[in-house]
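Morning - 2-acetamido-2-deoxy-beta-D-glucopyranose inputs below, output right after.
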Amino acid sequence: MFRMRFNGSLAVGLLLLQAVFLLVLYSRQNMPLSRTEDKEKVHLLILSSWRSGSSFVGQIFSQHPDVFYLMEPAWHVWMSMFQNSAKVLHMAVRDLVRSVFLCDMSVFDAYMPRERNVSALFQWATSRALCTAPACKFFSHDDITNEKACKTLCGKYPFDIVEQSCNTYSHIVIKEVRFFDLKVLYPLLTDPSLNLKIIHLVRDPRAVAKSREQSKKALSRDSGIVLSTNGTRVDDSQFQVMQEICRSHIQIFETATFKAPSFLKDRYMLVRYEDVVQDPLREIQEMYKFAHLKLTGKLEKWIYSITHGESSGNKKEAFVITSRNAANVSQAWRNVLPFEKVKMIQEVCKGAMNMLGYLPVDSATDQKDLSLDLVLPRKQYQFSWV
Ligand SMILES: *[C@@H]1O[C@H](CO)[C@@H](O)[C@H](O)[C@H]1NC(C)=O
Ligand SMILES: *[C@@H]1O[C@H](CO)[C@@H](O)[C@H](O)[C@H]1NC(C)=O
Ligand SMILES: *[C@@H]1O[C@H](CO)[C@@H](O)[C@H](O)[C@H]1NC(C)=O
């Protein structure tokens, strides 16, 4: 009797379990659909560092018709308070980022004159949303935009248009290079008014250093802030800023993986720039999936053209992305950097390189031998968190 009852309840239990399982399957299949239907908001932070391919990855998001994108809005914070350290400015930067995610652009009142146009915003023309309708009537909403054309036509609209435009989008994407500690972002991750996701974009420190050397002057004020020099510009010939950057990558990666609190689950994604240039479409599809965005045919064509286009030479401007063979560009440091410098960078960035799968070289010969692959395949450095 007892046995019968037990079996009976077991059967009922199994049925229930099956039902729950089917329900889960069903809701999983339907989640993406209902997501796009009611346009659940996504707030995506591309967390990176200077010269790490973040302008490129930023563009990948900016050009998507569901995305309102701003590139480094916290530049305004740093420029207004350049005598402070990165650490002191963390909170103001976080507050600004939060406000922008919520499309509250009044936060810029603290850093700009009240009477201002769209063009007052740092790198505004990298934002397709600010270059197309409804922000700018000269281009239609899903046009692929270019900075130059946008700058000549779209900069004179009153600043209010930024907030109005932002409010029409489901996805707000911000690229920032001014966070050096993931814990600073915890309050945003637990904030019920936000649905924050973080793409942590890293790049081989030697490639970063090479690129930084080419834009030394443009970076010198920011470098001073990183090293707390009270407003003095720094050229980083000893790679102290590089050291800080590498330290922050370790901190962010470790905090998000081995030590991750539960609220970080499904909200953190590590991306290596080298993987993006190696197989752009695969990586972009994964990033879009993470951000709940769909890849359109138009975007796919555009991505192909910017990653396979003709080289348009060595652009001097610090923040331009151009059509060029991106995969080749990521190896350029091997022919350009003197081995002595490579050794210094490998020394200050040892931990980060080891963690992220970048192999050191022991000689100038190995450095220049492009048949040696110095980037470990993705699988070998990724852990069970993926
Ligand atoms: C903003 O643009 C208008 C033209 O629409 C121009 O008259 C004005 O001077 C601009 N203001 C600023 C602060 O650039
Ligand atoms: C920082 O610079 C300002 C202006 O140059 C100066 O007044 C101040 O005393 C400096 N502070 C420190 C701690 O050196
Ligand atoms: C890539 O770089 C290598 C070495 O710098 C060069 O020989 C090759 O022609 C380049 N390929 C393209 C497609 O630019």
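Note: The chain has one domain: 33-380.

O.
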